[in-house]
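WARN no homologs supplied; continuing
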Amino acid sequence: MVKKSLGLLLLAVLITVVIVGVVQSNLSKTEQINDFRLGTEVDFLPTEEGLGIGQVAPDFELTTIDGEVIRLSDYRGKKVFLNFWTSWCPPCRAEMPIMQNYHENDAEANNMEIIAVNLTSKDNGMRAIKEFVEEFGLTMTMPLDTEGTVEKTYQSIAIPTSYTIDTEGRVQKKIVGPLNKELIQEQMDKLD
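OK structure emitted
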């Protein structure tokens, strides 16, 4: 009888420990996402590639999800919001509808282009990417960085990472974490 009671007590303690661990793990994940509710401006050092504030943004050529070949330099004369994302990233999922809404309603009036670069080499395949695009009804420019070269050039270690680029093609800000409409507008208002 004592062995049976002791066994039940140990089982109850074990179950309690597991439940507490799961709850703490989930809270920790929620806190991490909440810490990045809004993007954080990041100071960064200039590199040979030209990622310092005021330097010309490194040009790249990528193919969009629609098969169109684009170059960053094609958008000279416009403000550019350059974003790096994947379909499995919760903060990316949170900010995409906001970016799409801004693209549809405010980008043209602000002489701005949103370029949302998918980090294809880190994503879950083309099917997941296409499903993501369809799920959110995304119509902004969405090139695919299949080799990860643009990601490396732009030092996009954490995702989402965004850059603001002025009309002369110069980097103005690097922002790590998701953005809301107000932060996007605030950053675009600061650009020439």
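Residues 25-36 have pLDDT under 50 and may be disordered.
OK
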